[in-house]
Amino acid sequence: MRVLITARIPEEIVSTIRSEHEIEINEFERPMDRADLLARVRDKEGLLCTISDRVDKELLTNAPLLKMIANYGVGFDHIDLDAATARAILVSNTPGVLTDATAELTFALILAVARRVVEGDQRTRKGHFRFWAPLLFLGRQVTGKTLGIIGFGQIGKAVARRATGFDMRVLYYSRTRLDASIEQKLSVEHRGLDDLLTESDFVSLHVPLTDKTLHMIGARELNLMKRSAYLINAARGPVVNERELVEALRAGKIAGAGLDVYENEPKLTPGLVDLENVVLLPHVGSATVETRTRMGEMAAENLLAGLRSQTPPNCLNCSRLASVKAR
Ligand code: NAP
Known about the structure:
The protein contains 13 helices and twelve strands.
């Protein structure tokens, strides 16, 4: 069968897929532009795509032969799952293998924004480190503070585990509350969203982007946070109303923000880059050699299984497709 791979991935993974299928690959570092993507997917049975590719109704209509979409990533808000399911196209993702890398990066953001790591580095390089003084370049201590985690799935829990090393009190908000025994084991306390925002020194977002989580954090929620608190977003940009975040940061409603993702990625909301109390990363939550390799292996396993008419190990819509078939 014919497979389109929309981004450069490790060569050994490409070889594994090539051993069973004919491959077309985007050889450039940048994502495929829309017209190119639509043209090249037209005669393909398999698609290995990333967050940079919008897999919507238009693309699916344009790809009449498509059987299998293997997403290289855990979040799949860029794929119209309903439209793919209606066409009986299998869709998979790569859950779990990004957990540790993204939790690490979340902590990097927490520490960087609270201890002014990036600002300090920039000033030192510019020759502004001339002497040590007791009140110079003060940040906020992380140890012993309260961390509020919104979305307590795999990454949220991995962040909570790391927080115990900093003696933090951990609050969480998820729609499903854990059993009391598990809460106790993880040393976490459940809160409603507003209470979590009010009580936390650091609020860290780990929900998927859905119609329920779009703009979950805006002016009202930022107003509930302490003026000394920080917002961390390594989930998806549109979970936060970025314009209202810039206003809150400017007005000192919160102390700072650490962002890995943006509402209109890769564009930044005007005003964001002018703020000193933010740390801005280019969506690198999963960007470690180990994780990106494993993501590629999983995406390939899913793709190959789907094209062999087997159930991909990380299928997102197989149970829905099976229940449609059973009816
Ligand atoms: P996960 O295990 O599915 O966890 C997501 C959690 O969010 C679940 O526990 C879910 O619990 C909760 N949730 C969903 N909707 C909610 C709502 N409306 N209100 C409150 N909680 C809600 O996923 P994960 O592996 O932890 O990944 C989370 C997200 O991180 C991904 O979807 C992806 O977008 C993002 N991510 C970003 C990067 C990066 O590079 N920055 C890397 C990896 C992942 P309930 O359903 O019980 O509420």
